[in-house]
Amino acid sequence: MKEYVFELKMKVRDYECDLQGIVNNANYQHYIEHTRHEFLTSVGLSFSKLHDEGVDPVVARLTMSFKTPLRSGEEFVSKLNVQKDGIKYIFLQDIYRLSDMKVVMKAVVECVCVVNGRLSTSELFDTVFAPYFKS
Fold first, then answer.
1. What is the pLDDT of residues 75-129, one digit of tens each?
2. Is 0.70 surpassed by the pTM of this model?
3. Minimal CA–CA distance to 38: which of 73, 5, 86?
């Protein structure tokens, strides 16, 4: 398994499952978004405080590949890496089922920053994320 810069353990709740008894695909987006927000918190940033300061990181593109379904009550770990490409911050996010460490889902999330209403690079993110960018 590859190395990641951040991980977050979670558990599937009953209401996240569809009639087939598996996690509805839309909930995976919630899982990975929550992971990104917790990553921000871990590096000392608050998503809501950023907004109050005029810095809004937004998702520009999201690709998800589903590999193995999760079911109610299963525990999983959501992991991420972050890269920089021009003005984009690219989050490579994978979810693994904890019981057997099978890959559940893989995602590539491209984010950009809107600073005071304008698409811009974020010096704050460049500085805070620099230790996590891999060459």
1. 999 999 999 999 999 999 999 999 999 999 999 999 999 999 999 988 999 999 9
2. yes
3. 5
C-alpha–C-alpha distance, residues 33 and 126, integer Å: 20
Neighbours of 69 (CB within 10 A): 17
User: DSSP H helical segments within 15-91, as ranges?
Assistant: 25-42, 47-52
Question: Which residues constitute the domain of residue 88?
Answer: 6-132
CATH number of the structural domain spanning residue 108 = 3.10.129.10
> So which residues are the catalytic ones?
18
Say how far apart CA 9 and CA 79 lie, in whole Å. Answer: 9
* Domain count along the chain: 1
Q: Say which residues have a Cβ less than 8 Å from residue 103's Cβ, sequence separation at least 6.
A: 67, 68, 94, 95, 96
Backbone angles phi and psi of 27, in degrees to 5 = -70, -25
